[in-house]
Amino acid sequence: MSLLQHLDELRKRIIYSLAATGVCFLACWYFAQDHIYPWIQKPIIEVFKKYNIDPHLTYLNPTDPFNLYMKVGLMAGIFLASPVLLYQVWAFISPGLYRNEKRFVLPFLFLSVGLFLAGGYFGYRVVFPVAMDFLIGTYGANFRANITITEYTKLFLTIILGLAIIFELPIVLGFAGMMGVVNAKFLFKHIRGAILVFFIIAAILTPTTDIMNMTIYAAPMILLYVGSIGIVWMVHPRQRRKRAEKRKNQDLQ
After folding, report:
1. Residue 146: left (phi > 0), alpha (psi -120 to 50), or beta?
2. Nearest by Cα to 207 from 120, 116, 134, 121
């Protein structure tokens, strides 16, 4: 494909992605008030009840609830549209693959969507409840909680979407390995530096400052990085050429 053909293909994939996100956003916006947001605020409501705090969030501006449901609809729409979005990524890079490697489209979709959803679920079930309990129950015990829906939702989206994106690390490194940008030896050699970077990311995204919550946040990133080393080794051009030559020799025999 020429450069113009690549640009035209990229434009088409972006349009499909925006269309899918728009449709899913409208559908999720419709259900945001009565179904989605009650699920979002459930972690903090449970903490409020645990410490006998009035289980209601507040807002300061009449437009805050409307803007809130827009943001919630967009977030939920991105999660809902993730299979389509990730398929567009695969469709864009697939022309650069060998013919036999294109059969990995379904495993790629399942893995990428599964990792994206797993990251969000891990944040919702593990990281976020622990952070809310720690912040409100430990540091906020001597004060009256008056948390706004805007600040709470901003914190929720930062953690959930941040972890969902971070869980795509094996896919990102796999693409980099497929293009020959990195190899397994390079990743293994710099594993200590990667661990340091993961803890820095955890310190930035985690709302608490204690080492326990940072470790909970960083641990899955470290495991994903280690797993990515094996993926990069498998998809690196050197290994792909070896497999192609091996199949060619087998066909000649």
Report:
1. beta
2. 134
Contacts of 36 (CB under 8 A, 6+ apart): 28, 72, 73, 76
Q: Which two tokens stand for residue 162?
A: 């941040």
Report CA dihedral (147, 117, 216, 151) to the nearest 10 degrees. Answer: -10
Task: Determine phi and psi for 148, rounding to 5 degrees.
Answer: -90, 155
Please provide the DSSP assignment of the chain as one string.
--HHHHHHHHHHHHHHHHHHHHHHHHHHHHHIIIIIHHHHSHHHHHHHHHTT-----B-SSTTHHHHHHHHHHHHHHHHHHHHHHHHHHHHHHGGGS-GGGGGGHHHHHHHHHHHHHHHHHHIIIIIHHHHHHHIIIIISTTS----BHHHHHHHHHHHHHHHHHHTTHHHHHHHHHHTTS--HHHHHHTHHHHHHHHHHHHHHH-SS-SHHHHHHHHHHHHHHHHHHHHHHHHHSHHHHHHHHHHHHHHHH-
Contacts of 57 (CB under 8 A, 6+ apart): 41, 44, 147, 148, 149, 152
CB 201 within 8 A of CB 167: no
User: What's the pTM value of the predicted model, to 2 decimals?
Assistant: 0.74
Mean of per-residue pLDDT scores for the chain: 83
| Sequence letter at residue 115 | L
- For the stretch 145-177, pLDDT in tens is 888 999 898 888 888 888 888 888 888 888 777
- φ and ψ at residue 58, rounded to 5 degrees: -120, 170
